[in-house]
From TrEMBL:
Protein name: Aldo/keto reductase
NADP-dependent oxidoreductase domain residues: 15-315
Transmembrane segments: none
GO terms for cellular component: cytosol
Keyword Zinc: no
Gene3D superfamilies referenced in this protein's UniProt entry, alphabetically: NADP-dependent oxidoreductase domain
Keyword Oxidoreductase: yes
Organism: Hymenobacter rubripertinctus
GO molecular function: oxidoreductase activity
CDD domains linked: AKR_AKR9C1 (cd19081)
Keywords of this entry: Oxidoreductase
Length: 317
């Protein structure tokens, strides 16, 4: 399978990253193991999670996803076969948040313990901590890289200005640089990345690994009416955000492209569109069953024509 390098990190991944936000939440351990097995068997090699997944669920503390992945890594003996991405910085409760140097040192040890590994391939600042200098987390990451606990670092949910400041500081102060950016990006949500962040990433050669590649499931095409929103726990948030005239226009364009590619699905086309966009390395998508994984992986060989791309670009502009 084709591999793409993430920035200048030396990390090569298939053009689809498996999102781990559902592990320990809407997918229990057994279901999660089946999803992970299917993803690796299908040629995938990168799994994205975060220390705070899934702290938003009543009764959860955060770390549930990392714990499931760690048990899978240990039971399957697959650590050398996959790239593990995790994150630090978002609110977990009890004051556990931010990008302070001391907190990062504590958080990484907790993540390593839950993941049952001695290194993290890509450790990401989950969101900017604007109360701190951009150099503070970079100094912490420098120590972790030197100690072999982290191979490369990335940023997520940063403004263009703060990301540029961090990249410039890395150059001038000899600190490790963010090799990736993880932003929200899909056919519905384009402006936030394309206006300022994508040109910056291309200027510095960062790998872009967008999350919400399927717009929380909306771009699978299963949410087309108000009645469809009761199909999952995400339905309540999908309706107000996506089920409008623009959303329906995008779904119609997806349907038209699907009609030209026998056997394809809206989800596959939506992900293939991201993979074909200049400057993007690999979208992140989650699944709760092996069947969903199989469908997602079929996006990898799906060749979208210039006419397909034009139609999708116009509908989602």
């Amino acid at each position: 399978m084709q591999q793409r390098e993430l920035g200048r990190s030396g990390l090569y991944v298939a053009p689809l990253v498996l999102g781990g936000n559902v592990f320990g939440w809407t997918a229990d351990q057994t279901a999660s193991f089946r999803v992970l097995d299917a993803f690796v068997a299908g040629g995938g090699n990168a799994i994205d999670t975060a220390n705070m997944y899934s702290a938003w669920v009543p009764g959860h503390q955060g770390g549930e996803s990392e714990t499931v992945i760690g048990k899978w890594l240990r039971q399957r003996g697959r650590r050398d076969d996959v790239r593990i991405f995790t994150k630090v910085g978002m609110k977990m409760g009890d004051g556990r948040q931010g990008l302070g140097k001391a907190y990062i040192r504590t958080a990484v040890e907790e993540s390593l313990q839950r993941l049952q590994t001695d290194y993290i391939d890509l450790y990401q600042s989950h969101q900017d901590d604007e109360e701190r200098a951009v150099t503070e987390p970079l100094e912490a990451y420098a120590e972790l890289i030197k100690e072999g606990k982290v191979r490369a670092i990335g940023a997520s949910n940063f403004s263009a200005g703060r990301l540029r400041a961090a990249l410039e500081a890395s150059t001038t102060q000899g600190l490790p640089r963010y090799e990736t950016l993880q932003p929200e990006y899909n056919l519905y949500q384009r402006t936030g990345l394309e206006k300022d962040l994508l040109p910056l990433c291309q200027e510095y050669g960062l790998g872009v690994i967008p999350y919400f590649g399927l717009a929380s499931g909306f771009l699978t095409g299963k949410y087309r009416t108000e009645a469809d929103l009761s199909q999952s726990v995400r339905g309540g948030s999908i309706g107000p955000k996506y089920l409008n005239d623009r959303g329906r226009t995008i779904l119609a364009a997806l349907d038209a492209v699907v009609a030209r590619h026998a056997g394809s699905t809206p989800a596959q086309v939506a992900l293939a569109w991201i993979m074909a966009r200049p400057g993007l390395a690999a979208p992140i998508a989650s699944a709760t069953s092996p069947e969903q994984v199989t469908e997602l992986l079929k996006a990898l060989p799906l060749p979208l024509s210039a006419a397909d791309m034009h139609q999708l670009n116009q509908a989602s502009a």
